[in-house]
Amino acid sequence: MSKELSSPAFGVLDLTPPLLDSPPDAEGLRSALRLLAGGVTIITAGEGDDRTGATVTSATGLSVDPPRMLVSLNHTSSTWPVVERYGHFCVNLVGPHHQALANQFAGRGGLKGPERYRGAEWTRLASGAPVLDDAIAAVDCVVEEVLPRHGHVLVIGKVAAIRSRGGQSLGYCAGRYVPIPESSVFNG
Ligand SMILES: Cc1cc2nc3c(=O)[nH]c(=O)nc-3n(C[C@H](O)[C@H](O)[C@H](O)COP(=O)(O)O)c2cc1C
């Protein structure tokens, strides 16, 4: 639908966004996917000095019955070998107050491995993977299956424990973090 705005200086302005057909290549797909709002999670794995993790938008529920999670990790990510070695990972759902932590786990500022855990409290549930104490929810998993595809590893996790606290969640869209209103589940 076309949108118009009257302006004394310019007459009638057409504010309809232009339609853009892109080639079906990496650049075209990248610019289309910028428009997809993703939920921000922090994937954690390992223990002690052997801990690391990554901020991802690719984590999702694969199935609730049976309870299974799915995450796509870049094959070159420092997190994948640790997930593979320990056979576990935790999907920590984060809120707007975790933006700095999300940047740490995205490797911004050059922090590596256990340094990414700075500034937050951590615990463990069933699988042994680090769990963010004040995550809005944490889904703790043991690795069930791994599918290497196109430079990524699709990791399927069997859910071993779930902890939920509720609160606003953090999204990522068009290259920025965006707060997502609190889930109505926790508003009664
Ligand atoms: C919002 C956001 C979403 C991301 N999603 C993914 C993802 O789904 N899979 C992935 O492998 N990396 C993803 N990344 C990149 C990783 O966070 C980053 O590459 C990693 O933590 C740093 O790589 P390193 O551990 O090898 O240093 C994302 C980064 C950001 C900021």
Instruction: Give the name of the CATH superfamily.
Output: Electron Transport, Fmn-binding Protein, Chain A
Counting copies of identical and different chains, the oligomeric state is single chain
Structural class: mainly beta
- Cα gyration radius (Å): 19 Å
- Kindly give the count of domains: 1
CATH A-level architecture: Roll
What does the overall shape look like? globular
Task: Note the beta-strand portion.
Answer: 35-45%
Succession of helices and strands: EEHEEEEEHEHEEEEEE
Low-confidence stretches: none
Please, how many helices? 3
Strand order of the largest sheet: 5-4-8-11-12-7-6
- CATH topology label: Pnp Oxidase, Chain A
Largest sheet: 7 strands, antiparallel
What is the number of strand segments? Answer: 14
What is the top-level CATH class? Mainly Beta
Helical content class: 10-25%
Q: Determine the N-to-C terminus distance.
A: 37 Å
Q: Give the integer mean of the pLDDT values.
A: 93
The small-molecule ligands in this entry are: flavin mononucleotide
Domain Flavin reductase like: 33-179
Pfam families: Flavin_Reduct (PF01613)
Protein name: Flavin reductase (DIM6/NTAB) family NADH-FMN oxidoreductase RutF
GO molecular function: FMN binding; riboflavin reductase (NADPH) activity
